[in-house]
Amino acid sequence: MMDLEQIDKQYVLQTYARNYVNFKKGENATLFDDKGNNYIDFTSGIGVVSVGHGNKQVADAIYKQISNITHISNLYEIEPQSLLAKKIVDLSGYDMACFFGNSGAEANEGAIKIARKYGETKFDNKKFKVITLEHSFHGRTITTVKATGQSAMHKDDFAPYPDGFSYDKNINDIYHSCDNQTVAVMIELVQGEGGVQPLEKTEVQKLAKWLNENNILLIVDEVQTGAYRTGEFLASNLYEIEPDIITMAKGIGGGVPIGVVMTKHKDILSAGDHGSTFGGNYLSTRASLEVCNILEQHKQNGILDETIKYFEQEFNNFYINHSNIFIKAVGIGLMRGLRVKDASTLSKVIETAFNNGVLVLKAGKNTLRFLPPLTITKEEIKEGFQRLEKALTNI
Ligand code: PLP
C-alpha cells in the first residue's frame, strides 16, 4: 500500500518542496502530528491563521453558515459579504469599497485592473504603466508574477508576460521613473517574501503625497501586512497614509481562502468589468467577518499589543544570544525576521528548529521569518523560543 508521501508524490503536481509531516490537530499556535509530536507554530500557515488553529468561534460561525447556505453566486445579495465589506472599511478608517476574490494574487489582479481602467478613462492620454519595487512579491498569476520585482520569477518558461511593469531599487527612485504613462505605483509597506523589510515611514509619506499631487495611484499590497499583522488593522494605518487601492488576503480569512481589493475610486469598475464565481461567497465572508470581530476585540482589549511586546522581547533576546548566526533583526508587529549570515546556515536553522518542535519560515535568500498567529499566548511564545535555543545548540 502507498503511504501518504508516495500518494502525494504520484498524484499532486510537485510544485512545492514539501516537508512530509502529517498534522492532525491544531490548537491556537500549537500543532500535533500523527506521531504524537507537537510543534509551536511561528508561521501561521505563512501569515494566514491569524486567529490560531482550531478556532472554535470561527468554526462555529462557519458550521452555522454552511449548514444553511454556502454559496448562491454574486447575482444575488449576500448578507455576510455586505457586512464584511462594511466591517473592513470601518476598521480601515478609509472611505473605500471592496471587491472580494479568493487569494492575494487575485486581489492584486483586481487592483491592477482598477488602475488600468483609471488610466484609460481619466486622462487624455492612455496611462497603463505600473512601477513596483525590487524584492517585492505580488503573486503567481502571469500578471502578478510580472508585477513581482524578482527577475528570477520572470522565467522565459512562462513568457510572454503583460507589458507595462518596471521595478525600482528603492522608493526614492520612483520619482524619476514615473512618466506620463505611469498610472500606479504598487508597494508592500513591509516586504514579506522579500525579507521582512519595512519601508521608511517618512519616505513612504513623502512618496504618497507626491503621487497624489501627480495623479498617480498608490496601490498598497497588504496581502501579508493586513489584518493587524503589524499591530494596526492595516500597515497603511501604521504608516498614516491614504492609498488609492489596498489589497488584502491571508490573515483576513484566518485560513478560509479570500482576497480583497478595496479602493476609494468607487466609480471605476462597473457591472461586468470584474467578477469571481467563488469570491465573496457565504462561506468565506462569514468566516472572515468572525475573524475580523475576534481580531478587533483582541486589539481593543490590549492583548494584541501586549503579545507583540512580549514576542519582540523574546525575539530580541534570541537574536542577541546568537550574534554568531544572525546579523540583523528586522520587522514590525508579529512580522519579524532575522538575517542569517548565509543561506546554508538558514536552511540548517529551519531544519533543526523543526526537529526541535518549532515551525519557522524562510524569506528572501537569508532571512529567518516569524509570522505567528496573532492570538499566540505568552506560554507558546516562551516555549517556542526555548525550543529554538535548544535547536541552535545543535548547529
Ligand atoms: N502579495 C503579497 C505581499 C504576498 O505576501 C503574497 C503571498 O505570499 C501574495 C501577494 C500572493 O498571495 P496568494 O498566494 O494568496 O495569491
Name some characteristics of this structure.
single chain, 395 residues, alpha/beta, Aspartate Aminotransferase, domain 1, Aspartate Aminotransferase, domain 2, 2 domains, seven-stranded mixed sheet, four-stranded mixed sheet, 13 helices, 17 strands, globular, binds pyridoxal-5'-phosphate
Give a brief rundown of this model.
By secondary structure, this protein is α/β, with parallel strands linked by helices.
**Class from secondary-structure proportions:** alpha/beta
Shape: globular
Strands across the major sheet, in which order? Answer: 4-12-11-10-7-5-6
What's the number of domains? Answer: 2
Largest β-sheet summary: 7 strands, mixed
Cofactors, ions, other ligands:
pyridoxal-5'-phosphate
The total of helices stands at 13
Q: How many strands in all?
A: 17
CATH superfamily of the largest domain: Type I PLP-dependent aspartate aminotransferase-like (Major domain)
CATH class of the largest domain: Alpha Beta
CATH topology of the largest domain: Aspartate Aminotransferase, domain 2
How helix-rich are the residues, as a percent range? 25-40%
Determine Rg (CA atoms, Å). 21 Å
Strand percentage = 15-25%
**Contiguous runs where pLDDT drops below 50 for at least 5 residues:** none
> Mean pLDDT, nearest integer?
97
CATH second-level architecture of the largest domain? 3-Layer(aba) Sandwich
Report, as a whole number of angstroms, the end-to-end distance. 37 Å
Question: Could you state the order of secondary-structure elements as H and E?
Answer: HEEEHHHEHEHEHEEEHEHEEHHEEHEEEH
